[in-house]
Structures are given as structure tokens and as C-alpha cells.
User: What shape does this take?
Amino acid sequence: MNNKPLIIANWKMNPATFEEAERLLNTINKEMGRNENAEVVICPPFIYLSSLLSIAKDNLVFGAQDCFWEDKGAYTGEISPLMLKKLGSQYVIIGHSERRKYFQETDQVINRKLKAILKARLNPVLCVGEEARDSFDSEGRSLDEVSLVIGEQVEKALIEVSPAWIRNLVIAYEPIWAIGTGNSCSSDDAMRATLFIRKILTKLYDRSIAEKVKIIYGGSVTSQNVVDLVEGANMDGVLVGGASLNASEFVKIMEVLKK
Ligand code: PEP
Assistant: This one.
């Protein structure tokens, strides 16, 4: 693992009110005052971003959960990377399995968004992951689904992405069966997926570039399993969904990872 662990909170379409969002942020803010050893990124719903940014501690970083690929124009309902950049957001999650599933986002759409995010000098958090649980066999060889799905998602997302931009990229390995289910991936399988992703990056670019990309794990992360998943699997951090909405649990994740 390079540098500080990266802990990204994906609040999804939560909480329901700004007051709750503010309470959650205030608890995290207190912990940030004590925590210098992890990079913590909060990705709230768009409408809370600006207000939360204004009350957050300086060492707390913000991200968005999605964006469009154009800078501005007649695209009703959309938000551009440039707008996010101007607001002070530094990361954008793209290709989340929920967006692929409920909004029919294709690899081509994700590729356009990824390029726009990099052009705006933001950090894309590209989510990839297989659908079924039985994706690795007991001897640790990657089976067809993991290699096909992850390989294809990574390669298609990176079409025409220049090596010069890659250093800002974060890839989140999020097995779909682990998201929101309470069943996280084993650290061995997370490590195999990481190695596999680095192999693809090496094939597309080269080894030194592949090593610069941060690879994090997402899927039912808790304060109980986070150390095993990050240190045991040599990951660069975690993407946390459900547990990031529980202030004390999220603070515990920050505490155990900074040790
Ligand atoms: C996610 O949806 O990105 C995620 C990691 O969710 P959870 O932690 O709830 O599994």
C-alpha cells in the first residue's frame, strides 16, 4: 500500500435531510481533527456538497457520486466536472454498479465521463466488479467472470486515456454481490483482483504507471473487516457505503485504519 490509506464515503441518496447530513459531518470533522493518517473523502448527494464543504475541516476532502461529460450546455438535470471542480470537489465516483444497473450506464458512457473528469483535473473513482460470488476458484486462479468482467470494464473505461493522466485515477474493486449485503470479499480474493487489475494496467500502459494507480476495495466494509481488507489484501483504501452513514462506525473505520 502506498501513502495514506484512502477512505471514501459514498452516502448515495442519503441522508434524507441536510440537518442529518450536517450532524454526520460534524462527527467526522471531530475525528479529522485527530486523524492525519488517512485521506478521507466524503461523497454526499450533490445538493449538500456546497454547504458541507463550507463547514468541513481543511483536511477533509469531498467528491461527487457522478457527473456528466460536457462542461456546460443543454443537458437537463446534469452536473459537469468543471462545476464540481469550481465548487471544491476533488473526486468523482463513476461506473458504480447502481448506475450501471438502474441508469443503464455503459462502458462507453463511463469512458466519456472518465476522460472529462481527468480533463478537469479531478480524481475519478472508477468502480468495477463481477456479479457472482463464486468468481475465484479455491486454488486462486482467476476464473472467467472476474477476468472477463473486470478486464473489460477497466479496458473500456480507459480507451484513449493518456498515460499522463493516469496518476489521478483510483479504481474501486467492488464485487457486486458484496455491496450492501453484509458479505464482504475475502482479503485473498481482494488481493487477487488487485493484482489482476494491475496486470491489465501494465498491459495498457507500463509497470511504473500501473503502480501509481490507487486500487481500493468496496463492498460491506465495516470497522471489523477493514484492516484485513486493506492491509491483508495490500489495497490502497476502501469505498464505504452503508457504514459511512453510521457516524460512530465510520469514525471507527478511520481510527482502526490509521494505526
Ligand atoms: C458501495 O455501494 O459502493 C458500497 C461499498 O456499499 P456498502 O459498503 O454498503 O456495501
